[in-house]
Amino acid sequence: MPRPCRAASRAYHRGAVASLIECVPNFSEGRRPEVIEEIVTSIGQIDGVAVLDFSRDETHNRSVVTFAGAAESVVRAATAAVGRALELIDMERHAGAHPRIGAVDVMPFVPLGTTRLAECVDLARRFGEQIAMRFDIPVYLYGDAALRPGRHRLADVRRGQYEGLKAEIGVNPDRAPDYGPARLHPRGGAIAVGARKPLIAFNVNLATDDLSVAKRIAHAVRESSGGLPAVQAMGVLLENPGEKRYAQVSMNLVDWERTGISRAVREIRRLALEAGTDIDHCELIGLAPTGALLEVAADALGLRSFSVDQALELRLTRDR
Fold this sequence. Notes:
The structure is a single chain. By secondary structure, the protein is of the alpha+beta class. The protein is built from ten helices and eleven strands. The longest helix has 19 residues, at 117-135.
């Protein structure tokens, strides 16, 4: 199985990052590692693509893969991943803690370096139309690629999840796909394709297994409930066999410059202490922008007037 490689990092150091696009597909499978191995292999076999990271979660029954490359190489890799996932994942048998509408639940395109978000919007729309025709599957556009006002938020696209969409897609005009048939794929369900800025998937595991506490905290911190700006959150219970149970606040920080990791964790800890518990540990899912991680370091150390140029390797890279 191909491991995360350094190709994109080397390209960045050589100044080639301007042409790169990142793709971060989420697959509705986290309990069969052999399935994710085959999907990652299908991506890694495409010339011009670097598989940067992949992870799976059994409780969420979900895996996240990150890869990058030039636009057309990324499209070929994403298409290969969709085809393999539709062969290997059956949504009629899927269950997990994470909301989902399909085997390839979400396929976002993200600009790296000087690549413009508008390029990713165009790419997402073209890709969505192409895979809808090729695989006869409904496609919903979300994020900055959305064509309908009510579909910018992924949570709105996934309302009711797979089961709810299955019941509504052919009878409710509001649930009609942007591309493809008004019925779910018999195995793969539907796919949400989008364009967005880099986000941070970050989970906070509480020192309790009381799910109600995690749900209350998630409600308090997410933007849609009046909480922190640019934060999406939900409460779930981690119940992996043979392991300690944790109530988890699972978050997407969709704009870390508005709300970063440190601010989100501080607020969750404050709310957890009010509820009589604390944070046990945290998880970073996939990758995060360097600036976001350096912000955490600066906050932890109480640094003033900190600059990313004070990170030795980044300064050396800039000067090359």
